[in-house]
Amino acid sequence: MAILVQPFDLKQVYFQKINALIRQVEETQSEAIEQASALVADAIAHGKGVHVFDTGHMLDSELIDRAGGLYSFKRLALKFELNNDVRKRPQDGEKDRSLEGLMKYALKSSNVHPGDVLIIGSVSGKTVFPVDLAIEAGQLGVTVIALTSLTYSRLLESDHSSGKRLFELADLAIDNCAPALDAMIEAPGMDAPICPASGIASSVIMWAIEARTVQLLLERGIQPTVLKSINNPGSDKFNDAQMRRYQETGH
């Protein structure tokens, strides 16, 4: 009698992995999420800003100006472009730290003020920009919350001259529980693992923070600004009023 062998289903493996990841986040990071929510709620209640800086793994696109999301969360983004077409020459073997210090001037040009909250998302937490930003924001008197993979980051050497990684500089570090190198699945026939964990885990963490922040603000008698979907009839007028309200109240 022939034995039927079920095909290897990477889709099912993915669902198992991602569900286990979210459970791990809930079980291990609830206290950090609670602390972050309290910091954010307190900042909003006092008219302070909440800024999100992401190194490119979905976080700021997922959160900012979303229907059902807190309008108080604002993207902090920096674009730096240099054109110099001189012939390429050998490097001196040292790490490229030429951009260290840029964040000091970026913050001076920004609308980030002392007492604000800055959430920095970086999976590895080792590169110059997020580390430099955490240093400069801390010196400015901004509360820094890091969203990173502790397992991954602890294996890596910082690119910054301080030798520090993001989680070592933040006032509060939240672990997105992504594995080292981020990808979750070893796929037969592939030379590299697939399906990174950090993007979805970080989004889940941030929406949990937003949910708890709303609750904490309501307990203070503060109704925070939340936009409706633009596909909802009449939402344009509602959203316009909400955005004006945010500018007036800070929440």
Automatic annotation (TrEMBL):
Pfam (any one): SIS_2
Statement: the UniProt record of this protein carries the keyword NADP: no
Classification via NCBIfam families: PRK02947.1 (NF002805)
Keywords of the record: Isomerase
Span of the signal peptide: none
Gene Ontology MF, one: isomerase activity
PROSITE patterns: SIS
Protein name per the record: Sugar isomerase domain-containing protein
Coiled-coil ranges from the UniProt annotation: none
Domain (SIS): residue spans on this chain: 40-219
Biological processes annotated in GO: carbohydrate derivative metabolic process
